[in-house]
Structure formats: structure tokens, C-alpha cells
Amino acid sequence: MARTPLLPTLSFLIGSLFSNLAYAEPPKTIKLELGSAVTLSELAVNTGEQHYSFKRSQRDGEQDLYRRCLDSDLEEAWVFVRYSNMGEWWHEAGEDETEETASISPIGKLLTPPETIEEVYPYHFHRDKINGKGFASETFSLKDINGAIITAYIVKSVSPELLKKSGFKIVVASGIYTVKVDVKVLEDYAALKETIDATHSSKALEDYATLKGALDAVCSSKALKCYATLKEATDTANSMEYERWKITLGTSEFDYSPGNRVNFPRLNQVFAQRYSSGAVKIEFVPK
Questions:
Q1: What is the pTM of this model?
Q2: Alpha carbon of 160 to those of 9, 18, 50, 82, 107: distances in Å?
Q3: Rounded Cα gap, residues 66 and 48, in angstroms
Q4: Percentage of the chain surpassing pLDDT 90?
Q5: In this structure, is residue 209 part of a structural domain?
Q6: In a domain? residue 203
Q7: Residue bearing the bigger pLDDT, 217 or 242
Q8: With 60 as the cut, is the pLDDT of residue 8 above it?
Q9: 257 within 8 A of 133, measured Cβ to Cβ
Q10: Domain span at residue 95?
């Protein structure tokens, strides 16, 4: 069988980097327009223009998200922050919510002053649904990894130290993935790419000294190590997306068919271990 063109590049992975109500029944979806003021009984998908913040424990919020995996028609994103002076808060931060994805809005303003923040975790959930012949929704996608990279850069831009107390979490019906990004590796790539681009400029081609300096930088051990790490990350992402496609066909070694649901947590742990890399570390904790 010919492999489908599910091959993201390094530029795809990093190109977008610099880019409380008392309800009898908890609402699954709400729509907050500008000027609205609401209180919620639990975390809900918000399709309106105004984001909301909700004082709620991390554990209770995660239980809400497990329910959203099962009953929501749309995906959504939040940022959980534990403040030293205000306790635990969930900030709804999703945009362009669809049945398959939700992008995350800029979150830097939630993280100041950084010295009051003990932990920060962006969260995203996957709707529990079958894709073709398997529940690929139980696994993380390339878009999830890209979201983890973007938010890692945002957190680091506020405070490098804060990044040590952060990670990107993906909630699925059987548990939670945590993605940790090595931003230093990605920054090394940005510097390396700039150097490589310089070798293709007309000035570099006209100026041998500039060209030689650029080529020497590309061939340095640091640059080569950086390239090797990023190539590993890209190859891993390619393989992961191909495996997710096979899950939908029912041909993957990962049996995510409806009759094997009891084994999903174990499969997720293996999937996370296999598709971690030097630049992106992924762990799964069962529900």
C-alpha cells in the first residue's frame, strides 16, 4: 500500500510559533457575547466572543473535561493556572471550535505577574468518537503537538522559569496526556534555519566570506546535533500521523476498535512512549 502524503515538515512544526450560575443540569455549550457576565457549575464549551474564567480545582476541572469528551459536540481549550495568591482557576481560551479542533487564544495576559503563578497547564480535550474503524480520538495529533509548542513559547516569553512549571495536557475519555516541549532545541533550530537561509541569499552568494561563515555554522557540532534532534522529532511526527491514519482503517498494531476499549489506557501509554522525541516528551496517565 502506498503511503499517504501525511508528511509535515519542520516548518509546519514551528512555523506558527512566532505567531460562577446555578444550573439544574450543567450546560455543555454556552455562548458568551461581549459584556456578558456568567457563573458556571462546571467547565463548558464557549462559542461566543468573550472568554470566561472559573475558580475551580484542577481535579474537578479535569472531571468536567472527561464529561465533555463524552457529551460535547465541539472541542475546546482552557488554561489552568494555580496562583499563589488566588488559588486554582480555569481560563477558557478556545477559538474557532469545531467537531475536530479548537485553536488557543493568546494567554500571556493570564500569566502576569509570573511570580504569583505556581503552575500553568493549557488543556484541550478530544471528543470520544470513532474515526473510521478505530478511536483515533484516543491519541494525540500533530495539531496537538503544534499547540503544545506554541503555548510553550508563550509561557517562556513571559518567564523562562515558568516553563518548568508548565506543560500541555490533552484529555481523552480514558485519561490525560501531558506534553513537555524542549524550547531550547527549537530555538537552536530557529538560529540554524536563519543561518541556512543566509547561504541562499544573493549577498551570501556574492560574498564568499559570508557564505563560508554560514556554511561553517551549519556544519558545527551544535548545529548538527540540533538538526539530528529536530529530524527525529519530524520523523516521529510523520510516523505518528501515519499510524493514526492506520487506526481509522483498522490496520494499525494499536487496536482502538470499539470492542477493545478496556485496553485503551495501556495502548495510550505505549503510543505516548513511542511518539515522544528529544524535543517533545509525552506521558499518559489513565483516568
A1: 0.79
A2: 27, 16, 29, 17, 15
A3: 22
A4: 47
A5: no
A6: no
A7: 242
A8: no
A9: yes
A10: 10-187+216-286
